[in-house]
Amino acid sequence: MERIKTGITGLDNIIEGGLPKESITLVSGPPGGGKSIFCFQFLYEGVKNGEKCLFLTLDKKVDGILTQAKELGFDFQPSIEKNLVKFLFLNINKKLIYETMTNEILSGEYDRIVLDSITPLSEMPIYLRNIETNTPNEVLGSEELTPDGNLPIRRLHLRYIMNALETTKATSIVTSELPVGSSYLSRDGISEFLADAVVTLNLDPTMDRRKLSVMKMRNTKHTLKPQDIIIEHDGIKFI
Ligand SMILES: Nc1ncnc2c1ncn2[C@@H]1O[C@H](COP(=O)(O)OP(=O)(O)OP(=O)(O)O)[C@@H](O)[C@H]1O
Ligand SMILES: [Mg+2]
After folding, report:
1. pLDDT tens sequence across 91-132
2. 175 alpha carbon to ligand 2 midpoint, in Å?
């Protein structure tokens, strides 16, 4: 099986050299856990090798992301100018966000795709285009969410995204925010079942420690033991 390097050497060493090519990995963790930094490292590794990369964001504007990345030593500006990497902000208030997103995912012939993060999407209604009137129709509204965690609609949202990612040749990362101390692997409690791999980033404030765990990875023999990591100027490192 072909392996795609994550850009985090310690991680690649414990997963047989990298993520399985064309797989979808869920990276989940609490705020400040290092999810966005993980994504920067993954895409930076790609552009270093001349691969085509896409960074999709739902909650932060592109300028802020580029500044955050540059401060950590990941300067994407030259690669943006060479058309190697594209940063795209998707406004979740726009009804046809899925269309925009899937069009970009499917048309771009990307090698690596990041969606940071999936959380806002799993909390909005789903719209599909009405073919006759060419207007967005709300097919599953927020009022139809079930009070007990609205599983059906969330599953549908995630299916949409996962399906689009599965259709491409890209190796993908999707991040999910986790409340501190949560026993789920993702905020929605579903993505971990749909993804091919799950990596969690955890914080132990009392001990002032960070841990990375590989909870699941298809076709890969890996340890489940949490690994000690640090975040430094140039990103996530194993210690
Ligand atoms: N230069 C640096 N040196 C050391 N640690 C840093 C540095 N830059 C950022 N950090 C650490 O990384 C954290 C931010 O990581 P990141 O933005 O990837 O988290 P996140 O999981 O994406 O959070 P959120 O859910 O809020 O988006 C900071 O809170 C800080 O602890
Ligand atoms: Mg982030």
Report:
1. 877 767 878 888 999 988 999 999 998 888 766 655 555 656
2. 8
Range of the domain at 189: 3-238
For ligand 1, atom 26, which residue shows the shortest CA distance?
31
Number of structural domains (the chain) is: 1
Residue owning the nearest CA to atom 16 of ligand 1: 34
Burial (CB count within 10 angstroms: exposed 0-12, middle 13-18, buried 19+), residue 221: exposed
User: Looking at residue 223, which CATH number applies to its domain?
Assistant: 3.40.50.300
Alpha carbons 77 and 90: distance in angstroms, whole number: 20
Return the residue whose CA atom lies nearest to atom 1 of ligand 1.
233
* Euclidean distance between CA atoms 28 and 35, whole angstroms: 7
Nearest-ligand number for the alpha carbon of 31: 1
**CA–CA gap between residue 238 and residue 19 (Å, rounded):** 17
Tens digit of each residue's pLDDT (9 = 90 or more) over 51-97: 999 999 987 789 999 999 999 999 999 999 999 999 999 987 776 78
